[in-house]
Amino acid sequence: MPHEIEINKGKARMAYALGGDRKAPWHRLGTPMAGLQTMDAMLQAADADFDVVLTRVAAVDGEGNVIRNPDGEVVMVEDSRATIRQNPDGSFTPLATVGTRYEVRQNREVLERALAIVGASEGDAVMDTVGVLRGGARFFATVELDGLVIDPKGVNDKIDRYLVVSSGHDGVWPIRYANTDIRAVCNNTVILGLKNASRVFTARHTRNVDSAIEDAREVLNMSISWAQSFSKEAERMLGIKTPMGGTKVDAVINAVFPKEKDETTRQKNNREEVNNIIRSLYMNERNGAKYGFNGWSLYNSIVEYLDFYRSVDSTSSAIASMDDTSSITQKKLLAHRAVVS
Question: What is the pLDDT of residue 103?
Answer without folding.
Answer: 86
